[in-house]
Amino acid sequence: MLACHPVLANGERSRSSSGRLPFTLGVRDSLMIGHSFHGNPDFGPAGGMHGATYTCDVEFCCDSLHPRNNWVIDIGKASDILSQVLSKYNMKNLDEVFPDGEMTTTEFMARVIQRGIAERVRDECGFHGLIRVKLWESHKAWALFEEEV
């Protein structure tokens, strides 16, 4: 079953005049985590154990639509993959998920989530383009990580 955007025959990527890929499809989900920054004083009160509820926005960007389906990626498949990747961290203590003392900042988690999605999309869909993960820590603060697949 073809679920995502295929590789272009000529292997080229056309960019818009702004330098961005012209087509984007986005999906959103959320997760709740607990973690600490292992008492690191640089993090102030957040250095101790605390919880966070993240909203996770994912954008799939490419240079052209799928020739048969006119989509960037199957929105249902993209939503399922996001949900499955987030399930590794949802309702978990990240200090236990990453037991080597990793500082599980919002920036770090945006990268971990993006790469988890990228691996799944590449393996299951053959998607090629840019995947951007924006992880909202609150309505005032977020971190973003993007990388081409």
Structural notes for this entry:
It is a single chain. Strands 3-1-2-4-5 form a five-stranded mixed beta sheet. Helix 1 packs across helix 3. It is elongated and about 55 Å long. It has helices at residues 75-86, 94-97, 106-125, and strands spanning 23-35, 50-62, 92-93, 130-136, 142-148. The chain contains three helices and five strands. With 149 residues, the protein is an alpha+beta fold. The model is unreliable at 1-10 (pLDDT under 50).
Which properties best describe this structure?
single chain, 5 strands, alpha+beta, elongated, 149 residues, disordered N terminus, 3 helices, five-stranded mixed sheet
- 3D shape: elongated
Q: Which strand-content bin applies to the residues?
A: 25-35%
Q: Averaged pLDDT, please?
A: 90
Low-confidence runs? 1-10
How far the N terminus sits from the C terminus, by CA atoms, comes to: 20 Å
- H-E order: EEHEHHEE
Describe what is shown at a glance.
The protein is α+β, with helices and mostly antiparallel strands and 149 residues long. It has helices at 75-86, 94-97, 106-125, and strands at residues 23-35, 50-62, 92-93, 130-136, 142-148.
